[in-house]
Amino acid sequence: TQIFSSSSDTTTLAVLDTSIYMANQTFAPATPGVYDMRFWASSDQLPSSASSDTSYMQAIITDTVYGRDYGNGGNSGWRVARDCGGLQLGNVFDIYVTDTLTSVSAYLQDYSVPGTNMYGVIYEVDTTTSPWGFIMWDQTSDYTIQQQDPDSWVTIMFDDPIELYPGPWMIAIGSYAHPLDTFGISTSGDAEVGMSRIQDNGCNLGSQSFGYWYWVSSTPMIRMNFGDVSSSSTSIEESKNGLVQIYPNPTQGILNITLADSREYTVKIEDLLGKAVYSDIISESNSQINISNYQKGIYLITISDGANSYTEKIIFE
Fold first, then answer.
1. Interatomic CA distance for residues 29 and 27, integer angstroms
2. CA distances from 177 to 37, 81, 89, 98, 253 (A)
3. Which of 86, 109, 163, 191 is the 20 to 30 A CA-CA neighbour of 51?
4. Global confidence as pTM
5. CA 216 to CA 4: how far, in whole Å?
């Protein structure tokens, strides 16, 4: 069910240029939970039916946590404490209202060595310079990794709460050079360009000088906490995989749907303009939909049980 829609003001965009577009209305979720978002652009210089590809985003809204990761830590990640240097790894966030930062959480990889020291840092980000400037505001006291910490979340409190005003900020985890003590931070999902960073403090990650912040392509599982840490353990992938599987995608006309159980689910398919082309109720755990009579292209399929919903882009070729 669509609960919000807005558009931006129009601008003239030069060829190969980029711009940020702000919605004319704002949306404040009434309740925590999983929200699906779609973004696309249109132009008066193109045919009236033409628009850009639709970008999709799914987010878990909580009262207290800013995070970019999907919540499903795996084998991939970045080693922070190394014999060549103590690196820092972080995520950049846009803060829209003044709020009070209290702690940082990070998911440690399973090889992390108990007894290794780590710390959290909050930076103000200056996006007016090239490269961006990272201005340190505060650092936590050292936290010593405990026996139970590897392959789990660790939360480090700042000594005093920190008021963050609107603007870009980066939360980071750092450590020290050591020949044996080490730890790693898991990654989860692709990173937005420039928004996840690692600082090279002596390990020659690239051609830049000591202290340079390189951007990384996978999202570190590092979160900033305002107030108490959310107790919700739901991840985007858990929400998706626990509800439905849709395959094959791309499809040549037949879609198989596997549901978590045999309760009633509503299935709806829309084109990219939001026009419904299919709607039905299914109650079998394994079902099939034939879309071979539809025009080939991109569609959105939504599966809902009334309490939860999942939307996926499907390609009919």
1. 6
2. 42, 6, 14, 35, 56
3. 191
4. 0.65
5. 32
Question: What CATH number is given for 65-226 in this structure?
Answer: 2.60.120
List where CATH 2.60.120 sits in the chain. Answer: 65-226
Strands 133-139 and 117-126: antiparallel
- At residue 211, the 3 state secondary structure works out as coil
Structure tokens at 89: 């790894």
Q: Tell me, what amino acid is at 76?
A: S
Q: Within a 10 A sphere around the Cβ of 113, how many other Cβ atoms?
A: 15
> Model confidence over 191-250: pLDDT tens digits?
988 999 999 999 999 999 999 999 999 999 999 998 755 433 333 344 444 457 788 888
CATH ID of 235-316, from 2.60.40.3080, 3.90.76.10, 1.20.120.80, 3.40.50.1010: 2.60.40.3080
